[in-house]
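Exam review. A common question shows you a sequence with its structure tokens and asks you to describe the fold in words. Practice with the pair below. Do the first one on your own.
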Amino acid sequence: MNKVFSFTGAKKIVFGTGSLSTLASHIKELNAKKPLVVIDKNLSQAGFQEKVAKILKPEGIKFIIFDKTEPEPRIELADEGAAVAIKNKSDIIIGIGGGSAMDVAKAIAVLATNKGGAVDYLGLNKVPKQGLPKIMIPTTAGTGSEVTFTAVFVRKDLQKKEGMNSPHLYPELALLDPELTLSLPPGPTAQTGLDALCHAIESYTSVNASPLSELISLQAIMLIAENLRTCVHDGKNLAAREKMLLGSLYAGIGLANAGVTAVHSLSYPLGGKYGVAHGLANTMMLIAVMGFNLPAALDKFTDIAEAMGECVDGLPSREAAYLALEAVEALIEDCGIHSTLAEFGIKETDFPALADVAMTVARPLENNPRKVTKDDAIAMYAQAF
């Protein structure tokens, strides 16, 4: 190994069943008194607002709720939330939910202290200075947004998704309580869990992977492969939920350090133009991209196959590597995901336009172990059709 690498992440991670109860103490540690809690309406209506109130009110911490977040959030929500934070003189932002709520929360935190709007900071390293302190609390085992420096939004005007990427988006605290994932229904459990698997596989095979990120990404693959089926079909199994949330956390750390690959480049247009949920879009493209990348990373795909429980002893390298695709296909099927592009009204004539947009999502393509051309992208869309 002759690679120079760095490793970054959330400033502090607290993981454990019942750890949500420590929220007030962490707010005080950060010398904050007026939180803005960013949460989606469904969670708010499901009693999470009251759950937070029971923890914070006895400690004299008054909070404001911003509950306008939505799946595949519009970029305008970040600006709306920042206006609320500024008006109420919030001094800390707490994101509770899936990736959408946490992405909106992270963006609000930096917009509250930096001039301009969210569109000004799309891209890499465009946020000038630190935002308000951020605590991220995931209620799904999927996106890993609680430990990444990225916030992704839909640009309705352009019918595409774009990301805000800056070290200033790293949370001061990622607070992960597996109990919060117990109420997630089977469908969202499957989609978010497979999203985490995508992150783990992509970060493990990324050309920017390091020995440290590889270690974490491979462990994520193993944990997800061993526990996602149980979480989907026996959602109240706390032991499986704990391991699945840990796998999602590891996948997020791997993603933050090694980056994702062509799966995300190809899935972004599906969400931006057709509204396909992020985890589902990634899942639909995963097998096609894995098959495309396999010849360029036989050893890594063999490792993935082993981590997913396949026996590779004595097999020729390509056969061993191909078992990774079979293992992922089996996991997707067992989780009840059978969606295709055609089901979302996407036509074969749309593939060139989708590929054009995918080719503009440059950073994941640069991380991909095999160079992707527009024709390659069209072929992968055809495979997922």
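Now try the second one, then compare your answer with the model answer below.
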Amino acid sequence: MSALDGRILVTGGAGFIGSALVWALNRRGLTNIVVADFLDPRATWRASVPLTHNAPAKEKNLRPLKFAEFVEADALRTRLRADAGAFGKFSAVFHLGANSSTTEKNEALLRDINFEHTRELAGWSLAQGARYVYASSAATYGDGSAGMDDRDDNLARLHPLNLYGQSKQDFDVFAQREGWLPRIVGVKYFNVFGPNEDHKGDMRSLVNKAYQQILATGRVQLFKSRRPEFKDGEQMRDFLYVKDAIEMTLHFAEHPTGLRAGGLYNLGSGEANTWLTLTRAIFAALGREPQIDFIDMPEVLRGKYQYYTKADTGKLRDTGYVRPMTPLTDAVRDYVQNYLVPAKKLGE
């Protein structure tokens, strides 16, 4: 029995990973989906990039997709607080909505969106027996000095580098303390890139930013390293294609072994690649020779920059997830040639 057989709620469903997840559900023939997000410019959106800038691109993400109902995120929250049955019964809830700005400085607003709202939806989902999968983050691992082990239940060992990561960490710890974590799934996305991220401003992936730089100047800018053990451009990240990220996410509601899983799971490629490797793949996808400049890292990032990330996906594999990861060069080529160059969204 799949949790996708009934009604499905996707928060953040007009955003990057959320709209990709709706697209993947559509490809499975599923349309009984309620999408929640911020689109109305009059809505109270608390993020670094104004909604008036976000709205058009996020609306474009939704246009090719099929779903039963759209509800503004604030309205979802308000109505559920007043009446838990306001939207009917769901079999699966994917809570992907968040303030995802890693440079956000307003701690109270991050806590409201990333902790309080996540807590409210988790409690509501558990009460009605819906499968609850929520977005934690690899940002909870901080600089990685305490490891990036999703099998280690000692969450207190982790020290995020920014308020965004801390807000995600706070809910993980709360869910563990309340005894909820074995009954829900928190997915820790590493560096996800792919179609439908245009609205994210400074939070877009390097692939998206580099493509725009190449169109404008023929060159790409990368940050210089400020640590001697990493040469310029050789800082390493686990880059994950969004199409792989959503398959992993859906696994926890679609497959019997995934349905039995609970707790926190790393979602990454399982490989660490340098920014240079990624950038060269972008130029290759465009049929161009790499032209790369190194620039100073902004002051705001210097003490909060992750120099190395790599997801151990063994715990995910133990739940029966068997799909192969898309090789980085293949993923970049698909994104650049089939989405960025023709300016297409998923589903078009």
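Model answer, second protein: The chain has twelve helices and 13 strands. Confidence is low (pLDDT under 50) at residues 41-55. Full marks require stating both points clearly.
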